[in-house]
Amino acid sequence: MQTRPWLEQVWSEVVRSGLPPAYADRLLTELSDHAEELGDQAEQRLGKAEELAGAAVLAYRSSSFAGRHPLAAFVLLPLLLVVAGLGVHAVVVVASLEGLAWAFGQPDHPVVAWAAIASVRLIGYVSPLAVVIGGWAVYRRCGRPLGWFLALALLVAGFAALIVTGFDPLMPAAPVDLFVKLVPPNELHRVAQAALTGAVGLSFAGLDRVRRVRAFATVLS
After folding, report:
1. Which of 42, 52, 63, 106 has CB atoms 3.0–4.6 Å from 38's, for a disulfide?
2. Domain boundaries, the chain
């Protein structure tokens, strides 16, 4: 039996299951040494390609929380983290504006007002984007299919569309008042928040597809 097709099948099954190509390459190198020693008995002694790949996938996924619990890691926790991020951002903004108000000696100073407007406008962008970027890092190490990360990105993007922030720059007030007195929903910003978050997630997904296609081309060539 030629071991090359068997090894390539193991590699393909592992990568199609969502494991990183780099891990599949290391597995392929390790199996190549054993297969070369066993020769025609490689498949009989080591197992069928599907079985071996399945065992490797199971072992890899069991090594991380996201690999074991994808629903929690890619659906439940991201939404909670966005909410927590909004809270942290709010605290930082209020504290910073209070500091600026103290530094300039008056809470309605133009610098304080415009800093409030800019920083609060960013609330709808920073937290969702941070969660998507963090989710991408988790996805690349958990061994789950790309669909889980896409679900995270789309859910967070949809949540970002619900975040409403905005002030009237012609009516600056005290920093805390600026943070509390929200203007009516700014649809343009809500669309932009969702679009930017979704675009970042889809860009990451596209890069992952390209990376995997290149890996397939290299191994199977």
Report:
1. 42
2. 3-63, 65-215
Instruction: Return the DSSP state at 107.
Output: T
Q: How many CA atoms lie within 13 A of 12 on its CB side?
A: 14
Of 159, 167, 149, the closest CA to residue 190 belongs to 159
User: What b/e readout covers 124-140, taking b as 16+ CB neighbours within 10 angstroms?
Assistant: bbebbbbbbeebbebbe
Enter the pTM of the model. Answer: 0.78
Among 63, 58, 126, residue whose Cα is nearest residue 92: 126
The model's confidence at residue 178, banded by pLDDT at 50, 70 and 90, is very low
Q: State how far the alpha carbon of 18 is from the alpha carbons of 11, 38, 63, 73, 140, in Å.
A: 11, 29, 14, 15, 9
Q: Find all residues with CB under 8 Å of 34, minimum gap 6, and list them.
A: 42, 46
HSE of 59, CA atoms in CB hemisphere, 13 A:
10
Residue with tokens 């108000």: 101
34-91 pLDDT, tens digit each? 665 555 555 556 667 678 778 888 989 999 999 999 999 999 999 999 999 988 888 8
Distance CA 26, CA 29 (A): 5
